[in-house]
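does this look right to u?? 48H version
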Amino acid sequence: MPLFHPVTESDVTRAIVGGFLRQFEQYVESDVIIVGGGPSGLMAGKELAKKGLKVLIVERNNYLGGGFWIGGYLMNKVTLRAPSQEILQELGVPHEEAVAGLYTADGPHACSKLIAAACDAGVKFANMTIFDDIVLREGNRIGGVVINWTPIAALPREITCVDPVALESRVIIDATGHDACVCKKLEERGLIRTVGYGAMWVERSEDLVVEHTGEVHPGLIVTGMAVSTVYGLPRMGPTFGGMLLSGKRASEVALSMLEQVAAS
Ligand code: 48H
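got this back:
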């Protein structure tokens, strides 16, 4: 008597294709699309989904978590400055105080708990999916994102040229880290200007990132390391509290933007 229930290969394939297509169709329109599934994007997504919003994170890699997995210098430890260790507490991540006000945790533990919290809150993910372009409406207001499969985008043009598709949302969050890909796309079109992140200055950088997190263009919010790139703020190295609190701030800004849209 076999241990497992009998199923055929076509049952497995149908389950995957059907499940994918149902979700993809449902998320062709979302309340908020977050580009980038690193710590700032995951945090923003978790907070927004907790409030009942329909949130999709577009991530070009197969894995989520960005730079939060391995922390600094390939050493699997992440650091967070007070008061952001409270988020580790909320997520149930073991951590210890290294010196007054500076906490360490294991990157894989912190990152996997944050991903799980985002999933539990109801965030959906399009991974292996790369942001390609922006949808612009009247007055250059954001209308959505243009996406393609990462493997397609990685192929040389002479081998294939596959047109992308678009997903609609009135609020987009650029959480693509150092590259600030969404903001750079608007810069290419002459709509905003980015400065490039500055030299390291831990003490100053994280407050500035959180303070500057917000709307950079009608419908577009920038969060995380992308904030440093847009505004020329100092980098902070492998310390992540600023990323988490910036994500939280981005979610608050998104909520108030959506309230304004609903009221208009
Ligand atoms: C889809 C994309 C695209 C694209 C990128 O780099 P991240 O971890 O970003 P943050 O801002 O949440 O956190 C930054 C932090 O990890 C860090 O590097 C710090 C604190 N550095 C300090 C310093 O001094 O250097 O995650 C960004 C995510 C990644 O998963 C990318 O794969 C993804 O965005 N991404 N996804 N389409 N075009 N570009």
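The longest helix spans residues 241-263. idk if thats expected tbh
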